[in-house]
Amino acid sequence: MSVRTQTIPDVGAKTPVPALEPLLFELARPGRSGRHVVSHDAADIPAAFQRKAPLRLPELTEPQVVRHYTHLAQLNYSVDTGMYPLGSCTMKYNPKVNDRVASLFADLHPRQSYRTTQGVLALAYEIEQMLAKITGMDFVSLQPQAGAQSEFTALLVFKAYHAKRGEAATRRRIIVPDSAHGTNPASAAMCGYQVTTVKSDARGNVDLDALRSALGPDVAGFMLTNPNTLGLFEERVRDVCDAVHAAGALVYGDGANMNALLGVARPGDLGFDCVHINVHKTFSTPHGAGGPGAGPLCVKAHLRPFLPKPWIVREADGSYHYDTAREDREPAGLGDSIGTIKQRLGNFGVLVRAYTYMKTLGEEGMVETGRDAILAANYLLALLRPAYDLAYDRPPMHEFVISAAKQKKQGASALDVSKALLDEGFHSPTVYFPLIVPEAMMIEPTETEPRETLDAFAAAMLRIAERVKTDPAAVRDAPRFTPLRRLDEVTAARKPVLRYAVPGVAGAE
Amino acid sequence: MSRVPDDLRYSKEHEWVRLNGDTATIGITHFASEQLGDVVFVELPEKSASVRQFASLGVVESVKAASDIYSPISGEVVERNVKVIEKPELVNTSPYEQGWMVKVKLADKGELSKLMSAQDYRAHIGETAGAGGD
Amino acid sequence: MGNNPYSPHTEADRAAMLERVGVRDIDELLGAIPNDARHPKLGIGPGLSELEVQAHLERIAKLNTTAGSGPFFIGGSIQRRYIPAAVPVLALRGEFLTAYTPYQPEVSQGTLQATFEYQSLMAELLAMEVVNSSMYDGSSATAEAAFMAVRVTGRHKVIVATEVDFTYRRTLRTYGRGPELEIIEVPTAKLASSAEGAACLIVQHPDAFGSLVDVRQIADAAHAAGALCVQVTEPHANALLEPPGALGVDIAVGEGQPLGITMSYGGPHLGIFACRESLVRQMPGRIAGQTLDANGTRGFVNTLQTREQHIRREKATSNICTNEALAAITAAVYLSLLGPEGLRAAARAGVARAHKLANRLAALPGCAIANDGPFFDRFTLRTEMGGWDLRNALIALGIQVEATASHYYAGAKQTGKEPAQANAKPYVGGRREGRDDVIVQCTELTTEADADALVDAVAQLTRSGETVAAR
Q1: Considering its fold, how many domains does chain B have in total?
Q2: Structure confidence by residue, pLDDT tens digits, C153-162
Q3: Which chains neighbour B (Cβ–Cβ under 8 Å, 3 or more pairs)?
């Protein structure tokens, strides 16, 4: 395990902070080259099409490039560096075997014939089967490349479902809870829907009465994250789903918090019509500094006809192909399918990693994962409870939301506390989300942090709370031991500088 | 304490109106600018655009928030404040003077009755004193 | 302990943690979950050791024929190109690989600066003013460009050329079902005359068949009609061809995979998205920007975030959250290693080898190049066999090419560039009703031996008049 305790200011044991790095462009000198690709070919391009604009890419040698990116990497905090309790993002350990196995499938083009890609199809077919079993759904589309794209895909599926029943014109509204991720209303709007927000009740559940009065014949669907963004399991989830279904609408499960349910409960058993999975959260694929992810969409049988095409077909002899009339063609007819979101199998390289993880865990490992994630969150909450407020006091699932409202009154906000944590050697939790908790700090420890690390994190949080009482100005001044101090986001937005200004190039700022 | 000048009319959505003949100058209140924090961007309608009372006429943004500006009055835009587009910080530093948004030729003076006095607006934002402009 | 190899908790740990929580068993924490739904049987089998799982995946992988195992001419938006050894070594460092979106810029300067550099490199390559930090892929970037044009113009009609990659057009059509856009496909030759009332014209250059397109004329027509011009581009082509920013293009999109990213059967890849600075507030996706820290030191942050879903919610310019940041970093590493001359060399090699190969194939009896004008690094080969039969026969000989179905033209009422295809219809029930061809892509990895193998095979197959049953 790796706990970064070396920057604790209380004991003054600060290690040198990595130095900042010039920009690539500033390191370059004309004439330097790495000789990675050399060509003596002459290209035959008509003069009218030839590039006349200058091409001022930096010229560097390989050793320079290697040092540059190594130095940049050292400026980053990552899961490989230490605990990263970013709520709702499930920053668990990313096993290295997953990456190596993915390279077995790197040199394959998505337009190859099914005849030369039987391994891909066999694997994808099995991934679909496994995800269906884990979520309690019937069918799976691997095409969506991230959770948000899966939300959009599902809403297109909802639209097609209602159209099939002659209700596309009337069902124009999507309901989301006030605790929802921003992607939910954004996806609904992209899909041409109006968005209605319903409030949460005093126990952090969807307010069932508010939901019932929002429902009607003009509602297409309800989007629900469970456990919700407070880390709480919806206590009346089946009543919620029943109410939505009674209004003729569908229930979308946002699977962002699926880690809590691994082997513990299945959305398909709770009344959801579909659920997406963020495999970069639940199934340990690396978050890649912001992406890639993958967002398979798992649905009940009644939504299958509307899933993106093509679909994989398994023959009795164990061979696989796509369900196109002839290979690779537009399906003979799309039928009721919404079409194609992403050619063939989405972010297959990410899905291979997820498969490797699922095979490594197996049934027992999966159950242990969900339970350990829940235990870790409850344990950490117990440690933090003396110093921080809790908006909704009931046992959380895999994450929980505390409020720094008390600290704010004492002179340091949730943002200040989060910056002080950086000085303590930890990444910050998610702050100011969900919107319904003032000074929110959303903490997700995951199942892969040892107890010692959880203890160290809690100790840091308690130390900061103490410091807020005695010297809030010091907390407001954090971070002091990071490569940079707080950055001026106001100027960045008022006078945007979005690219390096290559000297003498028109168009550069 | 937010400043709420006595000589202006106010909307519930925190816009103010200053009347000069049949031309109304529109801006957002000191209270609203404090709630937003440092304003980084202002989007305003083109000259001669028509605006409707309580409909969106533009957007004002801070780093972490974006808010619609709702026109407190209907009419035709006769001038927009180019300075506030160039220097959005004027909304924070001078909300009632240099930080104005647009000037509108009034369509219906009767609409003014749907707006609040300074006293009512102070009550609206939960403040009872604090008169004075900038 | 022991079922999840990545869980660190011993039974003693768990007992101590439970005690601190004040419960005797984890089950006491699950009270909100309906009883009958707790701990379902999944039926996914037992866990494997690392050695077992590696061997298991190797067995499955052996069922594939990799691109590198024989002459390979499949390309288009996704291309098999040389990846310098340093690319994965750097881009896959744990500090990039296992970080997330840089929400805390003070400890994420590696990601933010690398992203800013990616934006700068790509802006330079495309000669565009602003580039975002990435979209999922070329197809979703194209669809989002159409959505952006709709927001900018307030119009709901999108005109896309039939010579745009068919996977992009499919995704565009699917996305368009959301806001119920009117999406019309016309041949590239008819784009300029179809601009009336359109939000945008979408053109690909070089197009899906490899042909070069007069983008400037299309951009002019778009602007005259108050529409935007969207160009689908390929990164290497810009090393040699006049880039979108010099052609009057308003939004440039494309697939960044050829920049050092593995094909991986379609993803994860890199959606390139660039636009004019005046349109940046309508741009989807994250953007890194330069600023100063509290000490006045230069640093980088995500900026203009009020466009994004976490702030603007239903009024956001897109729902995108997780993107393809690592792929953008990978592309930046690739571009910094190759430099301008390396990029030009790789591009030149593809162009030269494609033209040489095309000349040899065109000299064979019954074979012709179907591009009706200049082409770049891929071309369209027409034989009497038909594309699908030729492609399937070549697979049997260990050579992989892409067949182009007549569905490329399915949306077109008529096509200016392919008279033979004018009445082409999509395949119905497996019966071939139109002409089909193969597309041959060359890159710097295409060797003389590959070219010889393809020429020999096509000569042999077309001479013998051999036909292979269509499947």
Answers
A1: 1
A2: 999 999 999 9
A3: A, C
